[in-house]
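Notebook, student rotation project (T.W.).
Task set for the rotation: take a protein with a known small-molecule partner, predict the structure of the complex, and write up what can be learned from the model alone. Partner molecule chosen: flavin mononucleotide. Sequence and SMILES entered below by T.W., checked by me.
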Amino acid sequence: MSKKIVILNGSPRKNGNTSALVKAFAKGAESAGNTVTEFFLDRMDIHGCKGCFGGHSSRECPCVQKDDMAQIYPAVKECDVVVLASPLYYWNMSGQLRTAVDRLFALEEGDVNLLRGHDRSCALLMAAEGHGFDDVLLYYNHLAEHLRWKNLGAVLAGGNCDTGDIAGKPELEQAEELGKSIQ
Ligand SMILES: Cc1cc2nc3c(=O)[nH]c(=O)nc-3n(C[C@H](O)[C@H](O)[C@H](O)COP(=O)(O)O)c2cc1C
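Predicted structure of the complex:
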């Protein structure tokens, strides 16, 4: 059965290493009959969570803040798979991605938790200059566990600094295979 996949791409570089992983993943996922929607967060107007605990999941826009998260909430609500894609910044995901993830909290608030569970799965795509992925993996695994999303795995592409460094590397194939495996 075809799945709806949402990719939250937290890289600021449209043609960077993370985006190359995203493209490869999407190619594989679409070849398996899935629908892929990518959000390039850096070009979107997304503000940090205000911590007001005033969200209501059942509202069309569940958050009190009105910005481009309004495009992401319905897509995430409807999707089967959420892919978090990011460069490694100081041993973590980029601020662009972390900010969007915090804002997803509004879907957990109100009468019904629309974020947690719901037979959703998740995957992680990351690029970095080095190989220090331990801390971000800990965060990602905690997030998946908290949200009760099935973890489909991670493609972690170390050794990539400049745009284009990832070209021809095996992680692109791994990302494509991960996409293809979603059915
Ligand atoms: C603000 C900043 C922080 C970074 N922190 C790390 C880091 O902690 N570890 C690492 O290996 N690379 C780090 N890098 C390098 C990027 O992860 C690397 O250049 C990556 O390939 C960028 O992905 P992109 O092409 O998708 O933007 C950092 C780069 C920037 C700009």
